[in-house]
Write a structure and sequence with these properties.
Length: 116
């Protein structure tokens, strides 16, 4: 690293050891782990702003319902229809958790400059 904080333009890779302190890169491309450097991608549009670092266990379960022609529910019983609603609501909970964790990953990578 140069005294002004920029990286040397020497293309020789660092094969062993470590770099002490901060690494600041002001170029237009970057590549990690030996991949060809690429231009920084454009920013994600995050309209869902909740974030979490807890990846919960599933709360949903398999849905089993035998649909029959019973008026007015279309199920063997109203309880069977209620169970289907409960299963869908649990899937929504699971999806919300996945969205929260993914959003946190995006936030973390953006804060490190790895995502636009």
């Amino acid at each position: 690293m140069n005294t002004d904080g920029t990286l040397n333009r020497d293309p020789t890779p660092i094969s062993s050891g470590s770099i002490a302190g901060e690494i600041a890169h002001s170029g237009t491309t970057v590549g990690f782990y030996g991949v060809t450097p690429v231009t920084r991608p454009s920013a994600y549009t995050q309209t869902y702003n909740a974030a979490s670092r807890t990846h919960s266990n599933l709360v949903s379960a398999s849905v089993s319902a035998s649909v029959v022609l019973v008026t007015p529910f279309g199920f063997a019983s109203s309880a069977q229809g209620d169970n289907l609603v409960l299963a869908v609501n649990r899937l929504v909970t699971d999806l919300t958790n996945v969205k929260n964790v993914l959003n946190q990953v995006i936030d973390d990578l953006q804060s490190q400059g790895l995502l636009g």
